[in-house]
Design a protein that fits this description.
Blueprint: E1 6-7, H1 13-22, H2 29-39, H3 53-62, E2 63-64, E3 69-75, E4 81-86, E5 92-100, E6 103-107, E7 111-113, E8 128-131, H4 134-148, E9 153-156, H5 166-177, E10 189-193, H6 197-206, E11 211-215, H7 221-227, H8 236-250, E12 254-260, H9 268-278, E13 283-289, H10 303-315
Parallel strand pairs: 1-2, 6-9, 9-10, 10-11, 11-12, 12-13
Antiparallel strand pairs: 3-4, 4-5, 5-6, 7-8
Helix pairs in contact: 1-2, 4-5, 6-8, 9-10
C-alpha cells in the first residue's frame, strides 16, 4: 500500500501523545484516540464523533489507522473459527478463536511464516518472510473481537516464533493491556516459545506476569533436536535454566507443551525421563496428541499410549491436562496454521 500518512495504530501511548502534541492538540485527545482504535475497533476518523470536525479532517490528511483485511473465515464442527487475514503488502496470516466456555481465547500470529522448521509444524514449511508489526499483531485481536464479540484470553501461539520478534510482540502485548483500550489483563496473555533462551531471559526481566509456555516435545536433547532444530543452539540445560529464572522473577508456574508423536517421544522411557527432567520445576504439562499435517510421516499415538503416558506423569503429581486441539477439521489446530491459500 502506497500511503505515506502516519499510521497511529501500533503507537505506544507516549508516541501517540507526542504526535498529538506536535499538532498543537490537548493531551486528553490521546486517550480518546486510544479508546477509538482499541476498545471500539474504529479505523475511520470520521466515526470518532467526540473529536471536532476540523481535527478529524486534519487527522485524515496526515494520519491513518491501519486495519487487517479479512479474506476468509472457517468454522469448525467443534466451534473454533479460523480467520485468514491479508496484510497491506499482500502477505497473509491466520488467527484462531477457540471457544471453551467460559473462555474465548484468540490464538495470534507474530510472524509471516517461521524460520525454525519444527518437524511437526506446518508454519515452518512456509519458511520465514518477515516479522509482524505491533499494529498487525494487535489488530488480529481487534478484528476477531469485532467479528465475534468478547475475548477473555490471548495466546501468542499462532504462526511464527514470538521471541524472534521480541520488541514488536511486547509492544503489542502492552497495547492489549491498556486500560483505555482492550484492557486485557497480563495474566490472560500467554506467550509460547520454541525455546529462544535470550528472549526468555529478557522476558523475565520485564516482570509483566504474563504466562509463558515452552514447546518442549521431548525429554532429551537428541530427540528434541530431531524434532526442533533450534535445540542445537539452545540445548535443554540452557533452556531450563532460563525457565527457572522466569519462574523466580514472575512467581508464575510455567507450562510445558508436549506434542505426543507415535514411536518418537511417547514411550515409557520418555515418560520416565520427562519426570526426571521437570520434577524440580513448578509447572504444568499440556499433552497434545499430534495434529496431522500434509506430507508428514509423523503420526499421533493410539489412545491407550496417550493415556499410559499421561497416567505415569499424574502418578508423579504433575498437573497434566490432555489438550485435544480445537479446529483440526479446518487445519486450525496446534501446528496446522499455514496461510498459503
Amino acid at each position: 500500500m502506497d500511503d505515506h500518512r502516519t499510521d497511529l495504530k501500533g503507537m505506544s501511548p507516549d508516541e501517540l501523545a507526542r504526535f498529538i502534541a506536535s499538532l498543537g492538540k490537548e493531551k486528553y485527545r490521546t486517550k480518546q484516540l486510544l479508546s477509538w482504535m482499541y476498545a471500539k475497533g474504529v479505523s475511520d476518523f470520521e466515526a470518532m464523533t467526540d473529536l471536532s470536525k476540523s481535527f478529524r479532517e486534519q487527522l485524515s490528511r496526515i494520519a491513518r489507522v491501519s486495519a487487517l483485511e479479512e479474506v476468509a473465515r472457517q468454522r469448525s464442527d467443534d466451534g473454533a473459527t479460523k480467520f485468514l487475514f491479508q496484510l497491506e503488502d499482500g502477505l497473509r496470516i491466520e488467527s484462531v478463536l477457540i471457544r471453551e466456555d467460559p473462555r474465548r481465547t484468540v490464538c495470534l500470529s507474530s510472524q509471516v511464516g517461521c524460520a525454525l522448521g519444527c518437524a511437526f509444524c506446518a508454519t515452518g514449511r512456509m519458511g520465514f518472510t518477515r516479522n509482524l508489526t505491533p499494529a498487525e499483531i494487535v489488530d488480529q485481536l481487534i478484528a476477531v473481537r469485532k467479528a465475534k464479540g468478547a475475548v477473555t484470553n490471548v495466546v501468542l501461539m499462532g504462526m511464527g516464533e514470538p521471541l524472534l520478534n521480541y520488541d514488536n510482540v511486547l509492544k503489542a502485548v502492552r497495547l492489549m493491556n491498556l486500560e483505555m483500550g482492550i484492557s486485557l489483563g497480563m495474566r490472560k496473555i500467554t506467550l509460547s516459545t520454541a525455546g529462544i533462551v535470550p528472549g526468555i531471559e529478557r522476558l523475565a526481566g520485564e516482570r509483566l506476569h504474563m504466562g509463558l509456555a515452552i514447546s518442549l516435545n521431548a525429554p532429551d536433547d537428541r530427540t528434541r533436536t530431531r524434532l526442533m532444530p533450534i535445540n542445537r543452539r539452545y540445548p535443554m540445560n540452557e533452556l531450563l535454566a532460563a525457565v527457572r529464572k522466569f519462574g523466580r522473577a514472575t512467581r508464575r508456574r510455567v507450562t510445558f507443551e508436549y506434542i505426543l508423536i507415535n514411536g518418537v517421544n511417547d514411550g515409557p522411557e520418555d515418560a520416565r525421563n520427562l519426570v526426571r527432567l521437570l520434577r524440580e520445576i513448578p509447572c504444568k504439562i499440556n499433552l497434545i496428541p499430534l495434529n496431522p499435517i500434509a506430507g508428514s510421516p509423523l503420526q499421533r499415538p493410539a489412545p491407550e499410549r496417550i493415556e499410559r503416558f499421561r497416567n505415569f506423569l499424574l502418578s508423579h503429581h504433575f498437573t497434566v491436562p490432555l489438550r485435544e486441539s480445537k479446529g483440526r477439521d479446518i487445519a486450525a489446530a496446534c501446528g496446522q496454521l499455514c496461510a498459503d491459500r
